[in-house]
Amino acid sequence: MENFTDLGLSQPVLRALADCGYSVPTPIQQAAIPIVAAGYDLMASAQTGTGKTAAFTLPIIDDIGKRPSAKGDTPLVLILAPTRELALQVDENVRAYGRHVGTRTAVLLGGVPSGPQIQSLRRGVDFVVATPGRLIDLAEQGEMVFDDIEFLILDEADRMLDLGFVHDVRWIADQVPKPRQTLLFSATMSGAVRSLASTIQTNAQSVSVAPPEAVADNIDQRVMFVEKVNKPELLVDLLNHGDTERALVFTGTKVAATIVARQLNQNGIKAEDIHSGKSQSQRQKALEAFTRGKVRVLVATDIVARGIDVEGISHVINYELPDDAENYVHRIGRTARAGRAGVAVSLCCVQDVSQLRGVERLLKQPLEVIEDHEWHSPTVAACLAASTKAARQRARAGRGRGSGSKWAR
User: Fold this and answer.
1) pLDDT confidence bin for 403, thresholds 50/70/90
2) Beta bridge pairs of residue 247
3) How far is 194 from 363, CA to CA, in rounded Å?
C-alpha cells in the first residue's frame, strides 16, 4: 500500500490529508483504518508517534462526510482522552482532517470555565473530545447527551487507567447506547486494559503493529553519567551547544520542573514549565509558546508525556529518569515524529542508576554512554557496573537453584 487513496477514503478527506502534508499511511493506519471502516470494534496498540489519532478519526470522518448534509444537534462520536493536552491535540487533528467535510467538534475538559463548552454543545456537534471528569459533570447537568452516539473511542486507554479513570470510563460506556462501535487505542495494552475492553466491546478485532516497549529506530538514545549537583550545568551545556533545535526536558516532579525552567532562564535559555500544578490556561500558554518557537525548551513531568505533539522536537532530555521504564518510551516518543530523526539524552546520577537499569532491561540493550563531557562521573559509571554485575550474579544463582543444584535439593 503506497498512499491513502488505497484505503478507500473519500476525496474531501484525501484533500485534508494533502493539506496536512500526509502522503503515506503509517503501519497502524494501514492496519486499523479498514477494520474501523468495516464497522468492527477494535483494540489497537502501536508505539507513540505512529499516527494512532488519524487511524481512528479518518474512517469516522469519512463516514460522517458521506451522510446527508442535514445534521442533528447531538454528537455522533465521543473520544475520551486522559489529559487536557491530549484532548486538545485530538480535537485539533479532527478539525484538520475534517476541514473539507464540515466536521463540527467540541472539546470538553476541566480547569477552564464550562460556559463556552456548553455553548458548543448547544450549537450542535458531530465529535466530542473530552476528559472523563468534565464530561461526567456536563452529563449530570443535562448538557451532554449520549443518545445518538455511534462511536466510542478511548485514546491512550492504559494511561486513562493509570490515572484512576476506570470507574468513570465504565460509567460513560454504560451511557452510550448499543449497538455502537467501540475503539481502544494505546501505546501499551496491559492486562487491565484488556479486561476493560472485554466489558465494553463486542467481538473486537485486535491490531498490534509493534511490541509495547518498541522505540522508533530513528531515535539516537544516549546516557551521560553525572553527579546530581552538576546536572544543571550539564543541561545548560547541552542546550547551548550542538544541534539542539527544540528540546523537551523531563523531570520527575513538578517542583523539579519549576526549578529547572527557572535555572535555564537565568542562564539565558528561554524555557517554560508545564505540569499538573499549573492551571489549564498556564499550561496552554506554555505549550503554545513552545509550539510557536517563542521558547526553545519545555520542561515537563510525565503527566503530559503523551499529550505533547509538537513538530520539530529535536531532543528529549531526561533530566531525571522515570520510575516506570515504560514512561521512558512515552517520553522519548515526543521526538523523531513523522519520520524525522531525533535524539534522547538521559542524565544519570547515582540516584538514577536503578531506573536506568530498568530502562535497559525494557529495551533489551544498553544505552550509548557519552563520556566526552566536562562533568562525566566515573563514580556513577562504576555504580551502574556494580549494580549490573550483582544482578547477573543473582540471575546465575537463580538458574543454579532451579537446575538441580544443592540449593534445589
Assistant:
1) very low
2) 297, 315
3) 23
DSSP H helices, 153-273, are 157-162, 166-175, 191-200, 231-240, 254-266
Cell numbers at 143, concatenated = 448538557
- Please list, in sequence order, all residues whose beta carbon lies within 8 angstroms of the beta carbon of residue 223, skipping any fewer than 6 positions away: 345, 346, 348, 356, 367, 368, 369, 370
CA 10 – CA 118 distance, rounded (Å): 32
Q: Are 318 and 250 in contact, with CB atoms under 8 Å apart?
A: yes
pLDDT of 71 strictly over 80: no
What does each C-alpha distance from 399 to 179, 232, 361, 403 come to in angstroms?
52, 43, 18, 6
Q: What percent of the chain has pLDDT over 70?
A: 91
* Grid cell locating 67: 451522510
Q: Which residue has the cell 475520551?
A: 80
Handedness of CA 394, 399, 400, 406 (dihedral sign): positive
Contact by Cβ (8 Å): 275, 254? yes
Instruction: Indicate the burial class of 268 (C-beta count within 10 angstroms; 0-12, 13-18, 19 or more).
Output: exposed
* Domain annotation for the chain: domains and CATH numbers: 4-208 (3.40.50.300), 219-394 (3.40.50.300)
Pairing type for strands 247-250 and 315-318 reads parallel
Residues whose CB falls within 8 Å of the CB of residue 193, separated by 6 or more in sequence, listed in order: 43, 157, 158, 161, 184, 186
E runs forming strands in 244-318: 247-250, 271-274, 297-300, 315-318
> What is the Cα–Cα distance from 126 to 61, expressed in whole angstroms?
9
For 394, residues 6+ apart whose C-beta sits below 8 A from its C-beta are none
Closest CA to 19 of 88, 87, 101: 101
| CA 95 to the chain's CA centroid | 19
Q: What is the pTM of this model?
A: 0.67
